[in-house]
């Protein structure tokens, strides 16, 4: 009755049963030859380096030899059982890796401006406000609408009822005057 069941099993499962029941070294050698390269690829893909992956494969196959008595072909085939041991070994190795220490972590640069930058920006803003106040009111209004309120020139023209060319001229003349005013304060 057992013979038909054994015939339906894979050759690896039959070899693992031989290791389990008879401590068959030749069967274990065949298992090792079949699974070692596959387990190594699994370990490397899981993040282990080449040398430590080979060590992990050795550990897994040693566990297969020592735990073969626990193998039950009715619960899993040889591949599933061996890959389960390998998966657990890989998880154990990942848990044992030391966590990065604070001194090992790169220092994150802050995007926040430092106090000197804040002061410089505030000074530039106050100079800009002062220069805008010295412009003709119609130029200042056109610049504020175009650059501070982000209103398109055509929309400013519609809002004021002035021709588009007049709005563009006021903006251009206002910018030239601002450049001239701000150039006086630049170091």
Automatic annotation (TrEMBL):
Belongs to the sigma-70 factor family. ECF subfamily. This is RNA polymerase sigma-70 factor (ECF subfamily). GO terms for molecular function: DNA binding; sigma factor activity. Coiled coil: none annotated. It comes from Gemmobacter caeni. Residues 31-97 form the RNA polymerase sigma-70 region domain. One of its GO terms (biological process) is DNA-templated transcription initiation. Residues 129-178 form the RNA polymerase sigma factor 70 region 4 type domain. Keywords: Sigma factor, Transcription, Transcription regulation. Pfam families: Sigma70_r2, Sigma70_r4_2. Gene3D superfamilies: 1.10.1740.10, Winged helix-like DNA-binding domain superfamily/Winged helix DNA-binding domain (1.10.10.10).
């Amino acid at each position: 009755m057992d013979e038909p069941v054994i015939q339906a099993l894979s050759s690896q499962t039959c070899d693992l049963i031989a290791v389990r029941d008879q401590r068959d070294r030749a069967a274990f050698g065949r298992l090792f030859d079949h699974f070692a390269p596959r387990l190594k690829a699994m370990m490397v893909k899981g993040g282990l380096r080449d040398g430590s992956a080979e060590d992990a494969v050795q550990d897994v196959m040693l566990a297969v030899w020592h735990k073969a008595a626990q193998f039950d072909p009715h619960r899993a085939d040889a591949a599933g059982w061996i890959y389960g041991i390998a998966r657990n070994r890989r998880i154990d190795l990942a848990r044992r890796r030391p966590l990065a220490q604070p001194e090992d972590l790169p220092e994150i640069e802050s995007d926040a401006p430092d106090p000197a930058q804040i002061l410089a920006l505030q000074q530039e803003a106050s100079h800009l406000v002062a220069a805008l106040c010295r412009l003709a009111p119609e130029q200042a209004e056109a610049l504020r609408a175009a650059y501070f309120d982000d209103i398109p020139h055509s929309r400013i023209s519609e809002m004021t009822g002035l021709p588009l060319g007049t709005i563009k001229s006021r903006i251009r003349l206002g910018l030239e005057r601002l450049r001239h005013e701000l150039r006086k304060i630049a170091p």
